[in-house]
Design brief:
This protein is an all-alpha fold and 42 residues long. 88% of the residues lie in helices and 0% in strands.
Length: 42
């Protein structure tokens, strides 16, 4: 039982980490787009 709970907790943690990474990539892309719009990045 405890093994199942631990696995479920790890699964949830992994999913949360994955979502955070996706958000981070998306925000980074947004920043890059803004900079390109300002002509700071060729």
């Amino acid at each position: 039982m405890s093994g199942f709970v631990l696995r479920a907790a790890m699964q949830g943690e992994y999913r949360r980490t994955q979502a955070f990474e996706i958000e981070l990539i998306a925000s980074q892309r947004c920043i890059n787009e803004k900079m390109r719009g300002n002509g700071q990045i060729a």
